[in-house]
Write a structure and sequence with these properties.
heterodimer, A: Leucine-rich Repeat Variant, B: mainly alpha
Chain lengths: ~230, ~190
């Protein structure tokens, strides 16, 4: 991997040069942005089979949106699988590599869908993201972002629901509680309340009860919270 | 996951399985970007060239003869792509000046727990390196951060092992002089 330091054996006669060599290790090196990955997969598809990609893109109705990048990468992976199937060889290592690539591309596709202009596509992205959020912090954070900011109430509510498996994460747990206090939509509040009641830990449930007691939730939700907590205690 | 060697992945790319380039990209794009950034001193340009490097790898994969490592071959492509980029963009402006570049680099990366004096010294080292001619910067950067041997370094620089060693010594001498001039004193830590 490129991010390891090299072990090249440089020996200088001048001690200052030797010290400089050692000090170079601590130089700031800069980090690439996520755009580099997106651009690469986009370029990869253009460099591979532009005619085929164009036809498939039109067929899939992807237009010029961000989904293009991941869709193209999926096709590249599919092409790889086809190559393997053709040869019929038991190339386990190769399959492992392809599986890893596929997982990576699926992840990019999910993140793309969560940013799509169409609420329907974002909703699909939320459903898919819910399946991988448990093992992928970035996807979980993207879900939280949808839950907090999406213009569509349906998408926000679905994102909240998908976060259920992530409530044990401190970042997500705190984010959900902050969202609960900030949200002014009763529907979103209801989803958040149910999320905390179903998946929240003791501290989060106590916080929810406090919000209800202080009247900081919609009146119908206050009754819902108090009723649910009473039935749980019984 | 390094169960499959870079060379094997490249062979599969050459056989027509472009998806394997994704794995090579994931393994190496950070290092290639950092090399390009050092040479071009502009994050946007560095990303453009880094991306181009991997597309060049896709096209050139069948030409890889296997008489060196993939990594040495890849950095040779990265080096040529960087120089091509500099040549093509010369009309539109030279790379950023060293001071501008080092200011643009996130100085926080140097580490918050270092003393102000130490940070100053690292800042001066960054400037000294950036002030060297590109041919000296590349040998230091690749030798320090990317390669384990002068043989592989020579492959990347398109020269013999002994030449790579000589270039490295010359580059470090120049870096020492440049640092002393910027810092007002030699490196003494």
């Amino acid at each position: 991997m490129s991010d390891k330091d090299s072990k090249l054996n440089f020996e200088a006669q001048n001690p200052a040069e030797q010290k400089l060599w050692a000090a170079l290790e601590d130089l700031p090196r800069g980090e690439p942005s996520n755009e580099l990955r997106r651009k690469f997969y986009s370029e990869l598809h253009e460099a591979s089979k532009p005619g085929l990609f164009q036809r498939l893109g039109d067929w899939l109705g992807l237009g010029q949106g961000v989904g293009w990048v991941t869709a193209a990468a999926c096709l590249v992976v599919g092409f790889g699988f086809a190559q393997i199937m053709q040869r019929g060889a038991a190339e386990d290592d190769r399959l492992q590599v392809l599986e890893n690539n596929l997982a990576l591309i699926q992840r990019e596709l999910v993140l793309d869908r969560l940013q799509d202009g169409s609420p329907g596509t974002r909703l699909k992205g939320v459903v898919d993201a819910g399946e991988i959020a448990a093992t992928d912090q970035q996807v979980a954070m993207a879900l939280l972002d949808r839950a907090a900011q999406d213009q569509s109430t349906a998408v926000r509510a679905a994102a909240i629901d998908a976060l259920g498996t992530q409530m044990n994460s401190d970042v997500i747990g705190e984010g959900v509680m902050a969202l609960l206090q900030a949200s002014d939509s009763p529907i979103v509040q209801l989803s958040l309340v149910d999320l905390v009641l179903r998946h929240g830990n003791a501290a989060q449930v106590r916080q929810l009860q406090q919000l209800a007691d202080e009247g900081r939730l919609h009146p119908d939700l206050v009754r819902h919270v108090q009723g649910s907590l009473r039935s749980q205690s019984i | 996951m390094q169960a499959v060697s870079d060379e094997q992945l490249l062979q599969w790319v050459a056989d027509g399985d472009a998806s394997c380039l994704g794995t090579l990209f994931e393994r190496h794009h950070r290092g290639v970007y950092q090399f390009c950034l050092q040479m071009l001193r502009n994050p946007g340009h560095a990303e453009d060239v880094a991306q181009e490097v991997f597309i060049k790898i896709l096209k050139a994969a069948p030409k890889f003869r296997g008489d060196g490592t993939f990594k040495g071959w890849m950095y040779n492509i990265a080096r040529n792509a960087t120089y091509d980029y500099i040549r093509q963009n010369k009309r539109h402006g030279e790379p950023a000046e060293p001071n501008e570049y080092t200011d643009a680099l996130n100085v926080d990366e140097i580490s918050a727990d270092q003393s102000a004096e130490s940070q100053q010294r690292m800042g001066n080292l960054t400037k000294a390196l950036a002030s060297l001619p590109a041919q000296l910067q590349e040998v230091i950067w690749l030798g320090r951060f990317e390669f384990d041997s002068f043989k592989e370094l020579g492959q990347a620089l398109d020269c013999k092992t002994g030449t790579a060693r000589v270039r490295m010594h010359r580059a470090m001498q120049q870096l020492n002089l440049a640092f002393a001039e910027i810092n007002g004193a030699p490196f003494d830590e």
